[in-house]
């Protein structure tokens, strides 16, 4: 995948997102952006091959190995997107608020937990399974992204699964729980401000609907 699809979907005169250019930086960084578009999801991005390989995870990543999280592979994003946060304007692709939920470094690994090269990692993605060690603020330890195979040809559905290690937890782990209270309050305030337009149906009963 090139960055053509990414660029095609956006009007950079309007959105503050960065334009798509390949990077030559070799650092293996990752970012997870919580994206409140029409449907809330978490954009999981790994820096590989001069782009951000990207998956949209509706429920967000989990540290619980029994929680297999659906991850839809989406178009590669430019590496400069790693710092993007803000609000994509209404009427544009992916309109809504983006915050950086977690970021850090990752290391692609093989089944023996040994580091592999960037090229091997890209090949692993092509084959439909990539393992990696994450070192973020929220996400740590080993994970795997594995493509769901079906007969319909190209399939963008993958699963993001935590491996059992010292960072795994058996507790219910909801990504939403770890969103800071401050951020939640900010979101509520905005919604409340929007709703101040006069309504002709006051009363609690009406509001409940
Ligand atoms: Mn998104």
What does this structure look like?
This protein has 209 residues and is α+β, with helices and mostly antiparallel strands. It has one domain. Helices cover 16% and strands 35% of the residues. The chain has 4 helices and 9 strands; from the N terminus they run H-E-E-E-E-E-E-H-E-E-E-H-H. It has an 8-stranded antiparallel β-barrel. The longest helix is centred in the C-terminal third of the chain and has 14 residues, at 181-194. It is globular. Mean pLDDT is 84; it is low at 178-209. Bound molecules: manganese (II) ion.
Tell me the strand percentage band: 25-35%
Give the proportion of residues in helices.
10-25%
For the record, the count of structural domains works out to: 1
Query: What is the CA-CA span between the terminal residues?
Result: 45 Å
Morphology call: globular
Structural class by SSE content: alpha+beta
Largest β-sheet summary? 8 strands, antiparallel, barrel
* Strand ordering within the main sheet: 1-2-3-4-9-8-7-6
Roughly what is the average pLDDT, rounded to an integer? 84
- How many individual helices? 4
Which sequence of SSEs, written as H and E, runs from N to C? HEEEEEEHEEEHH
* Heterogens: manganese (II) ion
Number of strands: 9
Residue runs with pLDDT of under 50 for 5 or more positions: 178-209
Cα gyration radius (Å): 19 Å
Top keywords for this entry?
209 residues, 16% helix, globular, disordered C terminus, binds manganese (II) ion
């Amino acid at each position: 995948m090139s960055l053509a699809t990414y660029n095609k979907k956006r009007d950079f005169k309007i959105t503050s997102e960065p334009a798509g250019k390949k990077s030559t930086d070799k650092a293996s960084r990752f970012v997870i952006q919580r994206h409140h578009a029409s449907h809330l999801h978490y954009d999981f991005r790994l820096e590989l091959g001069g782009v951000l390989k990207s998956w949209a995870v509706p429920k967000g990543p989990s540290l619980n190995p029994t929680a297999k999280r659906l991850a839809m592979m989406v178009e590669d994003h430019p590496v400069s997107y790693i710092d993007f946060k803000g609000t994509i304007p209404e009427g544009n692709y992916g309109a809504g608020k983006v915050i950086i939920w977690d970021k850090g470094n990752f290391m692609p690994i093989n089944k023996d937990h040994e580091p592999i090269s960037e090229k091997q990692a890209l090949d692993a993605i092509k084959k439909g399974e990539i393992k990696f060690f994450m070192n973020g603020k929220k996400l740590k330890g080993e994970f795997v992204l594995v493509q769901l195979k079906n007969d319909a040809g190209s399939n963008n559905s993958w699963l993001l699964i935590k491996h059992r290690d010292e960072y795994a937890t058996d507790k219910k782990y909801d990504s939403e729980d770890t969103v800071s209270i401050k951020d939640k309050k900010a979101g509520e305030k905005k919604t409340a401000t929007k709703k101040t337009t006069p309504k002709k149906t006051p009363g609690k009963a009406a509001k409940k609907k």
